[in-house]
Amino acid sequence: MRVKRLLNQEWRFKLGKLDEPNKLVKKAASIGGLTAPLVDEAGDIVAVGAGGEHFLKLIAQGNRNKGLEMLAGTQLNAELTSKWDTINLPHDWKSRQPFINDPSLLMSGSKQNGQGYYRKTFEVDRSADDDTQVFLHFMGVMGEASIWLNGIFLGNHYSGYSDFSFDITEIVKYHEEGINVVLVKTDTTVGSEGWWYEGAGIYKDVYLEFLPRIRIDAPETFVETDSIENGQARLKIVVGIMNQSGNDRKKTRLLCTINNHTECFDLRPQKSSSTKITYTQVIDDPDLWSINTPNLYQARFQLLLEDKVIDDFQQTFGVRLISYSSNGFYMNKKRVELRGVCEHQDFGGVGIAVNKDILRYKLLKMKKMGVNAYRSSHHFASLDLLDLCDELGIIVMNENRILESSEWRVAELEQMVKQTRNHPSICFWSLCNEELIGNTVLGERIARKLTSVIRRYTTQSLIVSAELLSPKGIVNEAYMNHFDVNGVNYPEAEVNGNGLVMLKKKYPNLFFLSTENASYFSTRGIYRDNAEKCQTSNFGSSFSRVLPGKRKKGDPGVGGTAHPETVMHFIKNNSFMGGVFLWTFMDYFGEPSPFAWPGISSQFGIVDTVGFEKDYYYYYQSQWTSKPMVHVMPHWNREGLSIDKDGLTEVRVFTNCPEVELFINDQSFGRKLSGEDYTSWYVPYITGQLKAVGYSSNKPVEDLRTTSGKAKSTRVRLCYDGISTALYEVDAIDATGHIVPTANNNVRIKIMDGIFLGSANGNPMDISKFNPEEKRFFSGKLMVIVEKNCQKQPKVVAKITEDVQ
Ligand code: GAL
Questions:
Q1: Are residues 205 and 90 in the same domain?
Q2: Domain named Glycoside hydrolase family 2 catalytic: which ranges (predicted)?
Q3: Closest CA to 136 of 147, 126, 152
Q4: At what angle do helices 356-369 and 383-392 cross, to 10 degrees?
Q5: What is the CA(500)–ligand 1 centre distance, in A?
Q6: Rounded to the nearest whole angstrom, what is the distance from the C-alpha of residue 523 to the centroid of ligand 1?
Q7: Hey, is 498 helix, strand or coil?
Q8: 64, 104, 284, 506: which is deepest, by most CB within 10 A?
Q9: d(CA 784, CA 606)
Q10: Would you call 282 helix, strand, or coil by DSSP?
Q11: CB 519 within 8 A of CB 545
């Protein structure tokens, strides 16, 4: 039977170049050093056979001469003492390194590249067995990875965005044979794949998997929705079966159960062969998967050999149909406007070591804003992310890293499509992002190859590419024709999106989608640009990326590539676009546009690097959700506000209520019909309480900002309680209990009953060192991330250590 065993705990980690084992050796499995058990670990340092005994004798005599090491390939007895840290996965070694001022590292987050080694010993508590194969899976390793097991070099893996595994059936040590040693080298000095912070190290799960030799071939097994008509869904089911044993099997039976209906097939799987069973099943009254009802089904596949179950495999899937037309995207025959966001994969404080808990926290925050789609830019989505999006009803645009069709890239794409094709959330496969060879003859050849790979393995997603519009209007029709939907990044970069509208007129049969848009800068809690502090205003920054010739006269600057309002209008006025994917939901490390050092993170996010909302979160929420809400900006502390020569300051309110009223200290400044985007007032700054009230047919809703004094204490709030991780928001509080939105005091942190994983405050120039004990507030907040390590709930105590603001 199949068994999975996580290997995430208790790895040893060392940063810096080591005297590592050779990849090629002269005697099989005879590398000593770090890939063999060490003196303080049980087991032999070289394999014990006739030749091994000879080695052991020499070693026992203290003969560790060069000749011996030459044969072994490395020093026989590498040191592994206090210099190695003990860590648990997921882990990002780069995130704990200091920030450094080096222009060549600015885009990737101002952290030094290097090598990090991971080593783990484990025992396999069963005997070698002819009926089982053993695999070692790595779900994500950033940097070029080299892996050794028990002195044997298993291989290199190049991309940090694809998972990989090794068949270790023969070379793993079973039971009394001794302990196993896995050594992983991660190297980021050999080049990066992206122009953003990518992190480094083993940042996803590692596990062992024991699989029966005659088994359901998981990547070859899938369930597709063929049609949904008259209340019936017709499913196509393909089951892969492989016999990796040396014997032909006679009586093998396959049982497939979906929705309480079982089909039975008798098979005779030949030795070393694979076969497939394809059948259809109709489900009456299916519970469809959609963004509002993310219903999931389980298919169960069992293999029986002479009435004994030898494999039992469950596959989750969803029943849904999708299509795209000149009117946008359809799911289960209903138009769904894509309200999407683009994301990289890091998170403040932990880098790319983002576990399922942190991911869920982030996805829930997106959903609350009204997001229904996620573009995994610009790389494959992790399986954790896909599981969560299936469960939460979030449409995924899964993205191939790059428009290349070398054999290994093609093999990787093939693997990723196969292993994810049962996820109902994947409605789109994006082939690439803004490739220089897009719309060229070379690009066309490669796109032809890659789209054919995706189409060979799935009919359940639409293929898209994310392109920039050529200012000269250059397109390659053959290239565009390969896609079900032509993605356009930043259609507004062309005045009013005219280029795109003209393209649509010229090619009425092509379908379009805004795969990336806005790139709107803003720093949480900031209402005035300040280049020295790398801060941009939430009212719209004068640091614009719109080309000078295309700026409107008097435009204070759009902050990024387009105002959020312009993006939303464009989508509303051009329904053929199907919706939008905003760049980005979260601030991410690296790409600190429009600043340079000491800017270390981007400011395109709608929330900061830990998910604290910036004001425009509520703009999108007012546009995309219907539960009555209101949000007032700015904060109401004099410092940091822009006050004009007449003593007035702008107050902006986002609401989905038809009417809104503004009060200062309970004096009304007028009730108004809500503006299409927001409602503004220019009011005198008067210390006290700023209040916006939204009126609809429901109970009025309100939002308050109160002038505060200096920060005197903290308030710690558990903002997400996951299975293994808890996220704590720490707020600055003044003497009267009010939040201090401008506080930047230093805070001492103490954690009880938990392990510190990281802290961050969303400041785009927070270059402070990794420090579990201290962190500064930024705009009155910081986040502490804690691993739960026992039955008790962790406790976080935070104390202000200085009396400044
Ligand atoms: C896009 C690019 C993104 C990011 C963004 C910043 O053109 O696809 O990866 O760099 O610009 O505005």
A1: yes
A2: 327-402, 410-439
A3: 147
A4: 40
A5: 19
A6: 18
A7: helix
A8: 64
A9: 20
A10: strand
A11: yes
Instruction: Count CB-CB contacts under 10 A for residue 506.
Output: 11
Check whether residue 684 and residue 758 sit in a common domain. no
Q: Among 516, 517, 541, 593, say which to mutate for ligand 1: greatest number of ligand atoms within 8 Å of CB.
A: 516
CATH number at residue 463: 3.20.20.80
Q: Do residues 308 and 373 both lie within one domain?
A: no
How far apart CA 703 and CA 631 sit, in angstroms, is 6
Q: In the prediction, which pLDDT does 1 show?
A: 87
Please give all residues whose beta carbon lies within 6 A of any atom in ligand 1, as ranges. 433-434, 489, 516, 519, 583, 591, 604
What's the token pair of residue 646? Answer: 């007449």
| CATH code of the domain containing 265 | 2.60.40.10
Q: Residue-wise over 349-373: b if at least 16 C-beta within 10 A, else e?
A: bbbbbbbbbbbbbbbebbeebbbbb
Best CA proximity match to 681, nearest among 720, 716, 715, 632:
632
Whether residue 90 is found in the same domain as residue 232: no
Q: How far apart, in Å, are the Cα atoms of 150 and each of 55, 139, 177, 180, 239?
A: 16, 21, 12, 6, 35
Q: What is the pLDDT of residue 622?
A: 98
Does 578 map to a domain? Answer: yes
**pLDDT in the model for residue 51:** 63
* Domain annotation covers residue 612: no
Mean pLDDT for each 10-residue chunk of the chain (805 residues)?
96 90 78 69 56 64 58 60 85 97 96 96 92 97 96 94 98 91 96 96 98 97 98 98 90 96 96 96 98 98 94 98 97 98 98 98 98 98 98 98 98 98 98 96 98 98 93 89 96 76 92 94 95 94 65 49 89 95 97 93 97 98 98 97 94 98 98 98 98 96 98 97 97 98 97 97 97 97 94 95 69
- Count structural domains, the chain: 5
What is the domain range of residue 635? 630-706
| Mutate-to-test residue for ligand 1 from 403, 586, 591, highest number of ligand atoms within 8 A of CB | 591
Within a domain: 547: no
Joined together, the tokens standing for residue 728 give 């704590």
Q: Which two tokens stand for residue 719?
A: 């903002």
Q: Is 500 exposed, middle or buried (0-12, 13-18, 19+ CB in 10 A)?
A: buried
Euclidean distance between the first and final Cα of the chain, in Å? 61
Q: Give the pLDDT confidence score for residue 22 in this predicted structure.
A: 81
**28 and 98, same domain (yes or no):** yes
**Amino acid 40: pLDDT:** 62
> What's the length of the chain?
805
**Which residues, 6+ apart, have CB-to-CB distance to 301 below 8 Å?**
216, 221, 239, 254, 255, 256, 257, 311, 312, 313, 314, 315
Indicate which CATH number applies to the domain containing 34. Answer: 2.60.120.260
Crossing angle for the helix pair 356-369 and 616-624, nearest 10 degrees?
60
Distance from C-alpha of 358 to C-alpha of 365, rounded to nearest angstrom = 11
Give the single-character DSSP code of 94: G
Single-letter amino acid, residue 457: Y
Please identify, among 706, 728, 750, the residue that sits at the C-terminal boundary of a domain.
706
Pocket test for ligand 1, best of 519, 558, 580, 606 (most atoms within 8 A of CB): 519
Q: How far is the CA of 22 from the centre of ligand 1 (A)?
A: 40
What does the pLDDT read at residue 557?
46
- The strand pair at 252-258 and 222-229 is best described as unpaired
643-656 in b/e form (b: 16+ CB < 10 A) is eeeeeebbbbbbbb
Considering 190, 212, 234, which residue would you say is the last residue of a domain?
Answer: 212
Query: Is 260 in the same domain as 407?
Result: no
Q: What number does the ligand 1 atom closest to the CA of 468 have? A: 7
Closest ligand 1 atom, residue 602 Cα: 6
Position 593 in a domain: no
Could you tell me if 15 and 101 lie in one domain? yes
Of ligand 1's atoms, which has the minimum distance to the CA of residue 378? 9
Ligand 1 atom with minimal separation from the 490 CA: 7
